[in-house]
Structure formats: C-alpha cells, structure tokens
Design goal:
- The structure is a single chain.
- By secondary structure, the protein is mainly alpha-helical.
- 43% of the residues lie in helices and 6% in strands.
- It has a two-stranded antiparallel sheet.
- Helix 3 crosses helix 4.
- The longest helix is centred in the middle third of the chain and has 14 residues.
- It is globular.
Length: 124
C-alpha cells in the first residue's frame, strides 16, 4: 500500500485526524479571490467553470495561489515522493483537485511526486 493511500488524512501528534484547512475570508473577498491572482479574467473563468485548456492550467501553476498550495502540500506531506519515497520536486493534483481549482485542500487534493513518477502517472 502506498503512502498516498495510508496517509490520505494525516494524523496529528495527539492521534486525531487532521481536518481540511479553513480560510477565513468574507463572502465578497471569497468571490473576488481568484481574480486577484494576476491571471487574465477569461482564464480564471475557464478554470472556475472546468473548461480550462492546458495553457490555462500552466498559467494557474505560476500563480501565487498555486505556489502557496504547493508549499503547503510539502509542509503537510513532506518532501518525499508519495509513490517511491525518493526526493519530490513536484506536486500533483489528485483527480478531485482538478475540479476544485482555487479551493484545493493540500491534505486531500495535492500530493508530492518525483519527476519520474509524475511523468509515469500522466502517461497512463
């Protein structure tokens, strides 16, 4: 069984299951948040609606939001590849994470992978 399967919900030092991170922002800020990431409005709308293209996703992965999610995923999971335990240089959206762009939970939607495993995974 891989580390991804056994650590989908990491356990705290006290033995309690950790819950999803909560961002405390007002309703008006929540609605405008994706548009403040420096991405073109049309790209943000496609990302939010699920009709994005690979070039839209590449722009998204360069946004400040994605960089923060990537750093948070490394904090949660560590820097070892979830599949082979070699050093991880990349993070991967799990399938449900692609449907939650701008609302990912690093504990549930993003996992660290080494380049080899990441490429192998996307070739399937």
């Amino acid at each position: 069984m891989s580390r991804v399967q056994t650590e989908l919900y990491p356990v705290s030092e006290q033995g309690r299951r950790m819950t999803a991170a909560t961002v405390h922002i007002g309703a008006a800020d929540r609605a405008s948040y994706p548009f403040r990431q420096g991405l073109p409005r049309a790209v943000v709308l496609r990302l939010l609606s699920g009709t994005w293209t690979p070039s839209d996703y590449r722009l998204y992965t360069r946004s400040a939001h994605w960089q923060a999610m990537k750093a948070r995923a490394f904090e949660v999971w560590g820097r070892a590849c979830a599949l082979c335990d070699s050093p991880a240089a990349q993070v991967h959206h799990r399938p449900e994470g692609y449907r939650r762009l701008f609302a990912e939970d690093p504990r549930r939607h993003i996992i660290p992978l080494c380049r080899t495993c990441h490429k192998r995974h996307h070739r399937r």
